[in-house]
Amino acid sequence: MNVEMVASGADLVEAVAERLGDMGPDMADRMAVFPGRRPGHFLRKLLAERIGSGFVPPRVLSLDGFVDMVFDAHQTRPRPCIEPVDAVALLFEIQREGEPLGGEQFLSLDSFLPLGMRIFDDLEDLLAEGVDPARVAEVETLIQERVPLRSRDRLAAMAHFYESFYPRVEERGLSTRAQRCRAVASSLAAEDLAAFRRVVFAGFFRPNAGEREVLRRGSQVPGGILLLQEGPGIGKAFDEFGIGRADKGSAGEAGTSAGRPGPRIHLHKSPDTHGQAFALGPLLGEPDGETVIVLPAAETLFPLLRHCLSRFDGQAYNISLGYPLARTPMFGFFADLMELVLSMDGDRVYVPSYLTFLLHPYTKNVLFGDSAEATRVLLHMLEDRLAAGRGRTFLPLAEIEAAEEVFRDAERVLAEGGRGPAAADLAAHLASIHAATIGVFRSFASVRDFAERCIGIVEWIHDRSTARLHPYFTPFSESFLRSLDALARSLLGPMAFEGTAGYFALLRRYVRTCRLPFEGTPLAGLQVLGAMETRDLTFRRVFILDANEGSLPESGGDDSLLPLAVRRALGLSTHREREEAADYHFGRLLAGAREAHLFFVEGGGKERSRFVERLLWDAQRRDGNLAEGAHIGTVRYRADLSDRRPRPVGKDARILEILAGFRFSATSLDAYLACPLRFYHGHVLRLSEKEEIRGEIDRADIGLHVHEILRGYLGPRIGRPLTEEDTARSAIARIAGPAFVSRFGPSEAGAGRLLARQVTEHLGDFLEGYLRPLAHGGNLEALATELEIEKAWNGFSLFGKLDAVFRRGAQPWIVDWKTAHDRRRYASRLEDLEPADRATWSAALPTMQLPLYILLYSSYSGIAVRDLGASFLLLGRTVMDRDIEVPLFRERGEAENWPKVEGTLDALLHEIVSPDIPFTAPEDLAPACPYCAFTGICGTRRYAR
């Protein structure tokens, strides 16, 4: 076995070029084999630079490519290599034929799919390491005390799969990656490589048993060389290759080469991923081929492109990594569509999922004619309409498609811009979007049918939306189409799942295994590489982002059905071997560098990598300084956290004009009383918080529902005393059910049904526990419900909508329903009120609602204020009795305080319209800002709840 060693800091690609022999115009009789494909690009580039003219390059392959070359040459007819989904199909056949793994639990394709993926991975590991099938079942006797009973049953089933699976693969004229490797390991001979006078196998570390045998045989042919490189753990690699210790030479753990000092190491911590990219920019300088940016976490690619590399021309850098398809907008679109379909109740869509899907960039940019503007306008208007009726969380698609008012409003808005599609055309357009997406995704005949429908949707997005204008849409969609086409043509294609959810689970699991390959050629300029793409390459400047535990080294655990003890007993790799390999590649990458910068995120549950910890400890020992601040730079944002008050807003002529014609309601007065700036934003500028549908019925929805029920209850009873029959529970029950369905939709099951019952029962308690005692003897009469009154008073326009007016005995009594329970929010303290003292207003009058209603009703009815009563009724309290009342006047004599109340209202109105008093935040922001929608504008979000 011809083995040579390269120092850890040396350039392995240069070492391979030297061992290929003389460089000339024809190097077709030479071959280089690396663990991956990336070093081959650098080797060709190096040879081209040295030869200086056109030449025939050597054959350069990855180890998988080399195995494929030899394996295919030995076959009389092709034996294609299967994908994991093909393997699952064959394993499922075995599962259904014999003693099933897991008993009856995994006899459907839906339940077997995730299990099959794991079984295939384990079988490939077993075959790659050359484990005999009989030994799998026998190993439990060797380690019986460490293997639970359930795991022993699993081992027996695994042995059965192992014995049955690979013969079945061969019967189908197919092969697996491990089969190919084992076949080449047992048959590779000098004649297979006779066309090459020099074959260099370079850069391998801890390959599996099958790969080791391929390398051993390959390096034994005439002209064959196995070229290893020093680095952490290389001694174990020697042992596995069977190289004697005397032959190791200087192999060891060193991080330098030929006496050259190690790289200058710089550590940087950042609060988040984007901070790393921002901090990297100033350090890069001009991009060159001697610099690499390493991305152990592929999701950092786009923050890096946006915040750091965007200032460079696209030709100044190359990207080579496998970007997860599951992180692309294309999969995000399918994930939203799948979630929508799974959440549907028959033909009714779950509105939050429906809106999420509609507002995905691919959906809302579907073309209408030659522009997507009409689609965006239509879908956002539909969003507003659905949010306005947010209590209904399920809606039939047919009802949405028949929402004529939405289409008319969209037609009107678009006509203002001169684009003018008709409402009927917009309705047809929305229906076509539904048909092309939801319509084709409701049921499937087979996996092939499912994959072909997915392909059709991708093509529809390409043809019918502006998505194709995005610079990365084409690679995303092409990679997605290739993956879907492979799924359609797989052995799983004719099979069917029991339900739609099974197909969706398949797509999610399958896409998680797929990568969008950024090839990264040509090789000029800065290199942006994934961690695995740096293997066997040397750069003088190294920048590593996301140097956090879990990314460097990559975590994920052993997703194996074989217990750890069994894997060790059988000689299979575990997480420990993967971590040792990551340590080796990390060590040799730094050993070849002169300067290295490692960035990691600190906080948010993230920990710095063990490699960073080791480098930090080395620096601390070297400098004799244990202070982390001396060795770790901190990425800081410029943030002003000073406690600044919102700026006052003066009243210019336009604002004064608005205020002069303003109609003041209790809501606007309370807003001003709480915070003048809240009044300004909400009632002068008319800003409002965007309504969102969260899929849950919130307190505001419940309040509206309760008001609607009570309006329906009192309406038919106005003008006569309430009787005992009127206050029976059944009187509310007859109204509450239909009202709930009207507002929220059917409540056949789940939280809706429970809420409907709770509201009905609680209002029944209100009738029996509160109204019935008051109505005894005909002493309670309903005079009005939701009475709207408008009045000009002291030069101001006042408006109010009174929930209900009763006659209690001889006294008219104004009522406002509240679904709250806390009396302190509504209780007035009129004895403390001083109209001339602005500081007493909010404390003595938490709300101007009842004072305004009394003023309006007194004017409306001609009844003196002293003869009126007004109360809040707290329907949110547990016990329905007289304690739910919060009256404005706690006793009849308190009506004498009305002049103070009236004076305060007058002073408040004059303050609002005074040109000399700007809109200003209150002195104490803590009670004013919670629940306010404008804290983001004012910069007081820290006070929000």
Strand-helix topology:
Blueprint: E1 3-6, H1 12-19, E2 30-34, H2 38-51, E3 59-62, H3 63-74, H4 84-97, H5 109-128, H6 133-142, H7 149-171, H8 177-187, E4 198-202, H9 209-220, E5 224-229, H10 234-241, E6 264-270, H11 273-284, E7 291-295, H12 301-307, E8 317-324, H13 329-343, E9 348-350, H14 351-358, H15 361-364, H16 373-388, E10 394-396, H17 397-401, H18 404-416, H19 423-436, H20 447-464, H21 473-489, H22 500-512, E11 515-518, E12 526-530, E13 541-544, H23 564-570, H24 575-591, E14 595-601, H25 610-623, E15 632-634, H26 653-660, E16 663-664, H27 666-674, H28 676-684, H29 699-714, H30 729-744, H31 750-775, E17 780-793, E18 796-808, E19 811-818, H32 841-844, H33 849-861, E20 869-874, E21 885-887, H34 898-913, H35 935-938
Parallel strand pairs: 1-5, 2-3, 2-4, 4-5, 6-14, 6-15, 7-12, 7-13, 8-12, 13-14, 16-18, 19-20
Antiparallel strand pairs: 8-11, 9-10, 17-18, 18-19, 20-21
Helix pairs in contact: 1-2, 3-8, 4-5, 4-7, 5-8, 5-22, 6-7, 8-9, 11-12, 13-14, 13-22, 16-18, 18-19, 20-21, 27-28, 27-33, 29-30, 30-31
Q: Indicate the mean pLDDT.
A: 88
Could you give the count of β-strands?
A: 21
Sheet with the most strands, sense and barrel status? 8 strands, mixed
Number of helices: 35
User: Regions with pLDDT < 50 over 5+ consecutive residues?
Assistant: 245-258
Global morphology: elongated
Q: What proportion of the residues form beta strands (DSSP E)?
A: 5-15%
- Strand order, main sheet: write it out: 11-8-12-7-13-14-6-15
**Class per helix and strand makeup:** alpha/beta
